Amino acid sequence: AQGVLAAALLLLVGCGLFAALPVNLVMAQELLPRRASLVSGLMMGLAWAAGGLSTTAVGALADHLAPSLGPAAGLARALDTAVVAAIAATALALTLPETRAARYAQ
């Protein structure tokens, strides 16, 4: 996509990514209710650290792949790793323990 469509898609995907943040914080606070502030800070800090480190790793991978595949193809292959990371994160999320709200709803 290019132009206005690309900007609209970027906005939509960005909103989708950040929409999970409040849910993640509430889940963490339910897991440690007496340490809600601590767990909120840890969640936010770890999320920003993971994002920064993964950006560096994807950039390094794209630079490594660029000479053999070309700059655009190297970046595309490097960004494919982000999809794999999202799938792995989803699999890990399925192992989270049940929250109190879910227990009471049954």
Low-confidence stretches: none
Mean pLDDT, all residues: 83
In quaternary terms, these chains amount to: single chain
Rg, Cα atoms, Å: 18 Å
The biggest sheet amounts to:
none
Total strand segments: 0
What percent of residues are in strands? under 5%
Keywords for this structure?
106 residues, mainly alpha, 4 helices
Task: Describe this protein's structure.
The protein has helices at 3-31, 36-69, 71-93, 100-105. It has 106 residues and is mainly alpha-helical. Helix 1 (3-31) runs antiparallel to helix 2 (36-69) and helix 2 packs antiparallel against helix 3 (71-93). It is elongated, with a radius of gyration of 18 Å. The model has no long low-confidence stretch (mean pLDDT 83).
